UniProtKB/TrEMBL annotation:
Belongs to the tryptophan 2,3-dioxygenase family. GO terms for biological process: L-tryptophan catabolic process to acetyl-CoA; L-tryptophan catabolic process to kynurenine. This is Tryptophan 2,3-dioxygenase. Heme-dependent dioxygenase that catalyzes the oxidative cleavage of the L-tryptophan (L-Trp) pyrrole ring and converts L-tryptophan to N-formyl-L-kynurenine. Catalyzes the oxidative cleavage of the indole moiety. Keywords: Dioxygenase, Heme, Iron, Metal-binding, Oxidoreductase, Tryptophan catabolism. One of its GO terms (molecular function) is heme binding. Its EC number is 1.13.11.11. The keyword Iron applies. Binds 1 heme group per subunit. The gene is kynA. Transmembrane segments: none annotated. Heme binds at H218. It comes from Gemmata massiliana. Homotetramer.
Length: 260
């Protein structure tokens, strides 16, 4: 039997994964489920692409890294635009099924935390919000203990003559990325002398800006929907989300903007 579109994409199985818990079913619960499942698929793709970026950086491959950052930047734009769909839910329509979520919350998305760790925004304390022994938990532990995209970016910069301080080469990779003046001076020199690297650095900044924009839109979405209520997963809701607002994953690229 010939392979069909439905078979290749497991469409029937995919469409069977939306299972509203409200009874009788609230009309808007399906929208909520579909959008969040779509986010998890985008997160899966982002992790896949950012792992490729790490390999490109280690190998010193500029143009493949440029191509991939174009892709992840575009994915982030789509992720931001999806917030517009969720915002068609009014507070009353969301509250019509919110209690069915019990303690389930986007706060518990292991893939989003994994992406944060992969990008260098590592907070070991976030593991306590995951269920130990699950595949998601184990993957987070792995990401916590391996070099991030930023760590491999240092390797890439070294390929191009940037002096990487010894404390960065031997740093504890379980800690979050911190800006470094020596690295910034090296990036600034490359910005002004190699146009192809300028393109890469700008695409990295675009992606970083998109991630920050997604965080902001997410905060405003939560704020307009539940106000100051605690999150269903037990977090502080909006107040917790604000802690990571405007936190760049490539701080060295932002630190030199006024000097370009």
């Amino acid at each position: 039997m010939d392979l069909t579109y439905t078979d290749y994409l497991f469409v029937e199985e995919l469409l069977a994964l939306q299972k509203p818990r409200s009874d009788p079913v609230e009309h808007d619960e399906l929208l909520f489920i579909v959008v969040h499942q779509a986010y998890e698929l985008w997160f899966k793709l982002l992790l896949h692409e950012l792992d490729k970026v790490k390999a490109d950086f280690v190998a010193g491959r500029t143009y493949p890294a440029i191509s991939t950052f174009k892709r992840v930047r575009t994915i982030m734009k789509v992720a931001v635009e999806q917030v517009d769909i969720v915002e068609t839910l009014t507070p009353m329509s969301f509250n019509s099924f919110r209690d069915r979520l019990d303690k389930a919350s986007g706060f518990q998305s292991s893939q989003f935390r994994e992406m944060e760790f992969l990008l260098g925004y590592k907070r070991a304390e976030m593991l306590k919000h995951q269920k130990a022994g699950t595949p998601g938990y184990e993957q987070l532990v792995k990401r916590l203990n391996e070099p991030s995209v930023v760590d491999t970016f240092y390797t890439y910069l070294a390929h191009h003559g940037v002096t990487i301080p010894e404390h960065l080469k031997t740093r504890d990779v379980t800690l979050p990325t911190q800006p470094d003046e020596t690295v910034e001076e090296g990036i600034l020199r490359l910005y002004k002398s190699q146009p192809d690297l300028e393109i890469l650095f700008e695409l990295m900044t675009d992606f970083d800006e998109g991630l920050q924009e997604w965080r902001y839109r997410h905060i405003k979405l939560v704020e307009r929907t539940i106000g100051s209520k605690r999150g269903t997963g037990g977090s502080l809701g909006v107040e917790f989300l604000k802690r990571s607002l405007f936190h760049p994953v490539f701080p060295d690229l932002w630190a030199i903007r006024h000097r370009l």
